[in-house]
Amino acid sequence: MKKLLLFSVLIAGMTFGQTFKLTPENYKTADNKDYVVYEFPGKSKTELFKTAKIYITSNYKNLKGDGYNEVEPDQIVLNLRANAGTIKRLGIPVIGGDFTNRYEINFKDEKIMVKPQFESIELPDGMGGLTDKQAFNKKGDVSINKIHFEGIQEKTNQFVEELQKGMQKSSDW
Fold it and tell me: What is d(CA 60, CA 63) in angstroms, rounded to the nearest whole number?
């Protein structure tokens, strides 16, 4: 029984523990991939596409124009904007650090692939904006505030994990 429990924990860790880190080459997993693949046994490509579309459109509002694009039933591409965190300037909290990610979601029978890509960050009050190439200096070190950097990674991983969990929910009502 203990072996079965340990095996289940290891499998869950491998499936759900694939977190992205923002690198000078954009997002990468621990095994150096720029995407994750989730399996949904018994689900067709069309079923997975529809489930993802329902999840996205019910959880993310105002995805007009370039915010949401699809090629049914093969791919959904999202451009999502989120806040990377609040920093203090002269001891006063300054809200800012809005960043944009592009999420490419591809579908096959029984599988989806999610590939995030960091696009840009707008820094608070007059600090300007940075693209993916400017978030790191020439040495490969992070050139943005640590709070924003960690917030970007956290919100990216949160989106990917919530999409995967949302796809597992039953659509019975």
Answer: 7
- Which of 82, 78, 29, 17 is CA-nearest to residue 52? 78
pLDDT in tens, 137-166: 889 899 888 888 999 999 999 999 999 999
Residue type, 20: F
Q: What is the 3-state secondary structure (H, E, C) of the chain?
A: CHHHHHHHHHHHHHHHCCCCEEECCEEECCCCCCCEEEECCCCCHHHHHHHHHHHHHHHCCCCCHHHEEEECCCEEEEEEEEEEEEEEECCEEEEEEEEEEEEEEEEECCEEEEEEEEEEEECCCCCCEEEHHHCECCCCCECCCHHHHHHHHHHHHHHHHHHHHHHHCCCCC
Q: Could you give the CA distance from residue 34 to residue 51 in angstroms, rounded to a whole number?
A: 23
Contact call for residues 36 and 28 (beta carbons, < 8 A): no
Domain 30-168 matching CATH 3.40.50.720: the answer reads no
- For 164, the token pair is 């995967």
pLDDT given at position 5:
35
Give CA separation, 115 vs 53, 85, 96, 118, 121, in Å. 16, 23, 25, 10, 18
